[in-house]
Design a protein that fits this description.
Elements lengths: L1 H18 L16 E15 L2 E7 L4 E5 L5 H14 L3 E6 L6 E6 L2 H14 L1
């Protein structure tokens, strides 16, 4: 009888602790301020999206990059990467200075960069 009482009390305590958890808004985006470094025109490709991180390759760089999907502007960065991949054109990228693998911003390449890329692509074909 005592063991039964202890088990019931334990279950009741677990239920109360689960019910008192604070409900947080996980959809709220964070802002990360910090110094950034321009890495220039690159060809982006999304390798994977898992949890709140997108793994990215920025050719011709021989390293992996990532986008924290919990940051403001990350959805726009992913959209630009997908559009650049679809059109087969480069984009410009900046990374955070404190973590050179974390992409701070993706934005469109200049017309001159796109023309240079297309000329180089034709030479290689």
């Amino acid at each position: 009888m005592t063991k039964y009482f202890i088990v019931v009390c334990g279950v009741i305590c677990l239920i109360f602790s689960a019910c008192t958890k604070k409900i947080t808004n996980t959809k709220e985006k964070r802002i990360k301020d910090g110094a950034t470094i321009e890495i220039g025109a690159v060809l982006p490709e999304i390798l994977s999206i898992k949890n709140d991180t997108a793994s990215i390759v920025l050719a011709p760089r021989a390293q992996y990059f990532f986008i924290d999907l919990g940051l403001k502007g990350s959805a726009q960065n992913i959209k630009l990467i997908k559009e650049a991949k679809r059109l087969a054109i480069p984009v410009r990228a900046t990374v955070f200075k404190d973590n050179g693998n974390e992409i701070a911003q993706i934005y469109p390449a200049t017309e001159e960069e796109i023309k240079n890329y297309q000329k180089a692509k034709l030479k290689n074909e």
